[in-house]
Structure formats: structure tokens, C-alpha cells
Amino acid sequence: MVSGFSGLPGGVAVSHLSVYDWPAEADGGVCGGTPHMHLTCSEGYVVTGGRGAVQTLTTSGYEVTPLAAGTVAWFTPGTIHRLVNEDDLRITVLMQNSGLPEAGDAVLTLPPQYLTDPETYASVTVIPADAPEAEQERVARARRDLALEGYRALRDAEGPEALAAFHRAAAALVRPRLAEWRERWERGALAAATATGEQLDRLEQGDFSHLAGAVVRAEQPSAYGKFGMCGRLDVYKGT
Q1: Residue 123: how many CA atoms within 13 Å on its side-chain side?
Q2: What is the DSSP pairing of strand 23-24 with strand 30-31?
Q3: What is the 3-state secondary structure (H, E, C) of the chain?
Q4: pLDDT at 18
Q5: Kindly report the CA angle at 54 between 52 and 82, in degrees rounded to 5?
Q6: Rounded distance, CA 175 to CA 111, Å?
Q7: Between the N and C ends of the chain, which has fewer C-beta atoms within 10 Å?
Q8: How far is 88 from 231, CA to CA, in rounded Å?
Q9: Which of these, 189, 239, 233, 195, lies nearest to 214 by C-alpha position?
Q10: pLDDT tens digit string along 19-50?
Q11: How many CB atoms lie under 10 A from the CB of residue 237?
């Protein structure tokens, strides 16, 4: 029997993002989101409206990629990234591993004293789901500004030591969740690739029976306007 996989192609997930228009006073009033890094996931942006940029920081240095309607941009794990909103920037985000970037694979560029252990990190990053919207916004803005403080220090640092220290701290922070992440990968991207391999094997043998099991699915967002790292998110449950 050919393995089935019913998720979005390749085990990706999508969300719709309206990038924060909150100015950061400590950054000259630039509007935008929270700088952060993913450790096991690539992420892609399909810009659907507005104008802005994504700032990135890797071992190769600091870059700014302009974003406008029609732009497709993507980056690999280890890329510290920060979205800047210049004029109503709206993006459809493509996330590897069934949406793992929004389900835990992200470490904000907080100052080092907040990266020492999961409890300390959570104390300044978790947005209480049952809090009033005004309180959720206050926490989201506060963590954005705190992450910008650490981000500026990383950008200004000379030599690779500061970035290596952040990588080391981030890897230690996520280690307790790696088994959970592996399970998500096995159910998603690995299952999708395995299904394709089995279908190719069957077709080589003249067996096309999996075609009779074709299905069509559609879904509306399960939540609208959630406070994310980079902006307000419309998210999908089944992707």
C-alpha cells in the first residue's frame, strides 16, 4: 500500500502576515517586527502587498533585501532576520516542516542574560493567550524592543565570537524540544517525501492504483490577527 500524505505540498505550512507598523524609538523610529532565527527550518516570503525589507545577519555579514508586491525571498536555518514595514507590508509566509517556525523553532535575539535557560527566556517572550488584546500587544512590543537590543549588539560586534555565542545559546535553549520537532518532521516533510518515493516505485512497476485515492481539501484560517514575531498573523490549523 502506498503511504498517504494529505498536508500541503512538501510538508510546508502557510500563514498570512501583516507586518507590525510599530515604530522602534531606539532604532530611529523604524517600523517592523522582532529579529529572530530558526534552527531547523527554511522560510520563504511571498509579498502580496505594500513595501518594506528584510534585514538579515549571518556569518557572511549583514544584508538588506527590499520587499515589494511580487517579491519572493527565502532563507535557510541560521539566518537572523528582521522584517521592516515601510508601507503596509503584507506577506504570505511559507514555512518548512509543517509550520515549525511558528510552533517553536525560533529564538529571538535577546541580550545574552535572557538566553541562559528556557524559563528565563519564556519569562520575557511568551504572550499570554488568555490576556486582553491590549496586554498581548504590550508584551509583543516589549519583547520586540528587547530583541532589537540584542540584535543591534550582534550587528555591531567585531569578529565572529558574538554570533557564535548566540548560536550556541539558541541551540541549548531548543534542545529539550528536539524530540517533539523530530516527530513533526516525521509526520510532515519526511512522510511527504516517502510517499513520493513509494509512488515512483509503484509507477515504475506499472501500478497506478494510488491515483484512485485522490482527494481535494480546502481550509479557511483557524485564527485571525494573532500576535506573531513579525506581525499580526492569520494561521491555518491543518497545514
Answers
A1: 8
A2: antiparallel
A3: CCCCCCCCHHHCEEEEEEECCCEEHHHCCEEECCCEECCCCCEEEEEEEEEEEEEEEECCEEEEEEEECCCEEEECCCCEEEEEEEEEEEEEEEEHHHHHHHCCCCEECCCHHHCCCHHHHHHHHCCCCCCCHHHHHHHHHHHHHHHHHHHHHHHHCCCCHHHHHHHHHHHHHHHHHHHHHHHHHHHHHHHHHHHHHHHHHHHHCCCCHHHHHCCCCCCCCCEEEEECCCEEEEECCCC
A4: 98
A5: 115
A6: 19
A7: N
A8: 11
A9: 195
A10: 999 999 988 999 999 999 999 999 999 999 99
A11: 11
**Rounded to a whole number, what is the distance in angstroms from the first to the last CA of the chain?**
24
Q: What are residue 6's phi and psi, to 5 degrees?
A: -110, 5
pLDDT tier for residue 2 given thresholds of 50, 70 and 90: very low
Give the Cα separation of 180 and 103 in Å (integer).
Answer: 10
Q: Are 92 and 20 in contact (CB under 8 A)?
A: no
How far is 227 from 235, CA to CA, in rounded Å? 11
**Mean pLDDT in residue range 75-104:** 97
Residue 128's Cβ-count burial label (10 Å; 0-12, 13-18, 19+) is exposed
Asked if the model's pLDDT at residue 1 lies above 50, the reply is no
Residue among 128, 129, 122 nearest 108 (CA): 122
Grid cell locating 209: 492504483
